[in-house]
Hints:
This protein has helices spanning about 25-30, 50-60, 70-80, 95-100, 110-120, 125-130, 145-155, 180-190, 205-210, 225-235, 250-255, 270-280; strands at about 5-10, 15, 20, 35-40, 65-70, 85-90, 105-110, 135, 160, 170, 175, 195, 220-225, 240-245, 265. The protein is of the alpha/beta class. The chain has a six-stranded parallel sheet with strand order 5-4-1-13-14-15, with helices on both faces. It has a five-stranded parallel sheet with strand order 7-6-8-9-12, sandwiched between helices. Helix 11 (about 250-255) links the parallel strand 14 and strand 15 (about 265). Helix 1 packs parallel to helix 12 (about 270-280), helix 3 (about 70-80) packs parallel to helix 4 and helix 3 crosses helix 9 (about 205-210). The longest helix is centred in the N-terminal third of the chain and has 12 residues, at about 70-80. The radius of gyration is 19 Å and the shape is elongated. It starts with a strand and ends in a 5-residue tail after the last helix.
Amino acid sequence: MSLLLLVDLDGVVYRGPDPVPGIAAVLAARAAAGDDVVYVTNNSMHYRADYVSRLTALGAPVSPDRVVSAPRATALYVREHEPDVRRVLAVGASGLDRELRDVGLEVVNAGFAAERMAKEGLDGVEAAGAPQAVVAGVDPQLTYLRVAAAADCLRAGAVFIATNRDPVYPTQRFLRPGSGSIIAAIEVASGVTPVVIGKPQPLLLEQAAHAAGRDPKEAIVIGDGVLTDLAAARAVGARTILMLTGVTSPAAAAALPEEERPLATAADAGELRRLLDAVASGSST
Ligand SMILES: [Mg+2]
C-alpha cells in the first residue's frame, strides 16, 4: 500500500537557504515507488509557485497541488467551510492574497483598506467593502490602521481565520514577530477568537491529506518540530518521523514523554530512507 507522506519544509527538506543533504532524493524515490508526497508549511507569506520552483531545483517531487502551505490550506478551508464568504479582508503578505484569489474569493488587502480609512475618513468595514471574513498571517507592512480595519470588520460580524499562531518568524539573521503576534493584536482589539488553520492545529494536515485524496489518519508526518509537526500529527491521528535536521536536538528528542514520542527519529536522509522502506514493506513500525 502506498504511503502518504506529509513533509514539513524548513528543517526537513531545507534549512534556511541550504538543502538538507539527500532528503529530496529520498522523497523522489518514494514518489517513484507510488507514494503520495505533500509538503506542509506554516509559513504564511509565500505563494505555492515559489515552493514549486525551489523544490524542483532541489530535485524533490512536486506539483502545485502538492504544496499545502498555511495560506493555501486557509483558502481551501474558507471555500469548503464558509460558503457564504465572498469577500475577504486579508492582513498579510502577497502570497496570502494570491492563495485566497485562487479559490475564487474577492480579496481586499488591509493595506488598501487602511489607506482609504486614512484618506476618506471611513471605518474599516466601509473601507474594505463589508467583507464576510478576515484572514490574517504575517504582514511585514502591518500598521495601526490595518489592525483597526480587521477589528472593525470582526466587530461587524466577519468570521476570523488565522493562518497559524507561530509566535515568531525566524529569518536568516533575526527572530521577527510571527503570525501569532499579529493574530493576538487583532484578537485583543476585536474580542474575537479566530479559527486557526496551521500546525499544531489539525486543519493544515487535513487539507494536505485531502489534496492527495487521502485520509489524514493514513499519513506519516515528517517534521522537525515537536510543538508543531508532532502535535498536529497527534491531533489528526497520524504517525510521525521526527527529523533531527532542524530545531529539535537529539537530547530533546530523547527526553520526550512517552505520549509525545514519534514513531521514529531520523538523524539524516539515510536513516529516513531506511525507515520509510521499512514502513512501506510493513516490516517495522
Ligand atoms: Mg520545520
